[in-house]
User: What shape does this take?
Amino acid sequence: MTDPTPDAVDAIAAQWRRERPDLELEAMAVLGRLARFEALARREIEAVFTAHGLQRGEFDVLAALRRVGEPFELSPSVLADTLMLSRAGMTGRLDRLESAGLVRRIADAADRRAIRVALTETGRELIDTVVTEHTENETRLLSVLSAADRRELDRIVRALLAGRESDSP
Assistant: This one.
């Protein structure tokens, strides 16, 4: 990587150094840049979903169903757990996706009292298109980094997450 060009975070850190030279600002700068990149990337990522009439949460449901493989179905509770969402939140998403013809609720063959959520053919075709564009977009967002830098960034972020997730209840 080349020497970094000063950015908005550097300007903020310089102001803090001037006003409070006693503060350790390295963590603030790193986390500020991560937050700034996440906000910029989120806009571009969500633009792909919006172009296909989806919200992020709806994409997540369709993607979860698609990646489990044939027959592309899960119970609503497994979907909610997978997406770390409340059952009520999942119901709203499923209602919208079902109204759009992208999923359907079907009786569970093993337990007729239960239901499963399945991708429709239209839903499968849509998620295949969107996930292709989404992964291409994510690759583009990181294209300013070399392959080695992307691997190093992945290693560092993985270590950060492992440290925080082990502290979470």
Observations:
- The mean pLDDT is 93.
- The chain has two domains: 7-51, 52-143.
